[in-house]
């Protein structure tokens, strides 16, 4: 393709002069090397070329023993957290365990024994047969989910280093309005979808890239990541666990799993007297009040007829699928092969001012351009298909939420909302029954107390 | 387990479920949990079944795509970087003036630091023989000193490739999201099987295949 130059104006000689000068300078610089045009190794009698493999062999990986130690630590720590939350009912124990986990998994092991990131490894394994999942990573992913299925989110509470750092900095937690909580609480589902989509289609690890606290664990990051980290840490002082609640993709999985848990922490050790003292202590809006004999009408913000709900759900699903279809190609531009194809296309059609390093290397590699275009188109199609699935997934989450809002359940006692409860143990000390159990409140005082505050 | 935590069991797993909304919900929850367990078991089985077919993967950079830009030295989560220069001796032409060793603004052709390209003095010149007045040198990379900046790689005459960068797996922590791979302008990084964790230049591979220059030595 001829490019429009400046020849007509007479300035056109300049590139030539610069070019010749550049070639001259190049010869001065590299002349000595060019003297041996062939660049063939000379034969030196009596000298034997050293073995190039010897050096490179020193650089192979040692046996990953520590990985097994870490997986063991993780499982034992979740067990301990579950014991502390459900049986021992010790907030102090949970905080100490969180500090230990933060020290070991966070600062010593630098935050990369991480079930959150393992989501992408699993997704990539299912999508790409050439990628193999290390056994430790598989256990890392499955163990917390199974243990959450048994004991609730005790992993989040005291074992996850990201959760632990936020638990420890949440010194002035404020309660945010429930509706804000619910709306922002939908973000993790989207993030989970995006993380899996990019892992499957591009082999990227977006969730690891935007890990907010790994910069602290490694004490090194670039400016943007530090800014991101400090923003989350600062926010975490007044809004408890902002990453866990509004971004963590593993949290999105746990929210589905935790309500099914077999054993779960209870606010009261034996019985609930509906004294309402625990109502406001939870910084995660995770305590559900007792409803009495009939579900309170006030629990349903807007009572809607089933027909309208059905129509709404239909609309949500349609919007989800269609927006996925439209957004797919946009998301595909995250992939470097699509970016490269775009750059090459611009160069081919004379629209690009200059080539990039990537396009230079591509042209040198001798791969036909049509092959790159085909590859990029295939990736775009994968993104389109994947984005539709993500859209439907989000629609499913939103419509489930809608149905939940319309069908309140009867509750006889105050209980933690298992999907949101991080088993932090803040509520224990506010329960008079717990104080009685600990011997801090005698039977008589409790009776007086129950009489004055009793159910109602 | 039920013994340890028996206190929490009350009213959870009665089967068949008693009448009433509460136990229906409990029954539903139990069934869903079982479904979850079966699903997880199936997943583990699937992964275990695949295990052993593909090998474990590690990061490596393709020297044919490398332009010696220096990003490896500054983007790795490790300090110094896990990427270091490697010498493929059969490709080194023992040039009269090694442009990987000497800064082009050298004043004298000696080992003075101001004449060397390597900022840490990691490229070591060893005298071999004098051939009809032309001194021959061998160049070695000191792994402890090398920071992976790629100056020698770029310098090595026209990127001949006897000096090239490679991820050193005794140091690399194999991050999911390799931060050098993300910063690499030519996307030279990819995952390779851990059993064959190094990538050579095309020219080096040709030399090995042709078996010239005593390829194995």
Task: Note down, in words, how this protein is organized.
The complex is a heterodimer of chains A (456) and B (217). Chain A is mainly α and 456 residues long. Chain A has 21 helices and two strands. A two-stranded antiparallel ribbon of chain A has the order 1-2. Chain A starts with 12 loop residues before the first helix and ends with a helix. Helices cover 25% and strands 17% of the residues of chain B. Chain B has helices spanning 21-50, 71-75, 151-155, 179-183, 202-210, and strands spanning 57-61, 83-87, 123-131, 134-141, 163-167, 189-193. Chain B has a two-stranded antiparallel sheet with strand order 1-6. A two-stranded antiparallel ribbon of chain B has the order 2-5. In chain B, strands 3-4 form a two-stranded antiparallel sheet. The longest helix of chain B has 30 residues, at 21-50. The radius of gyration of chain B is 29 Å and the shape is elongated. The termini of chain B are far apart. Chains A and B meet through helix 1, helix 2, helix 5, helix 6 and helix 11 of A and helix 1, strand 2, strand 3 and strand 4 of B.
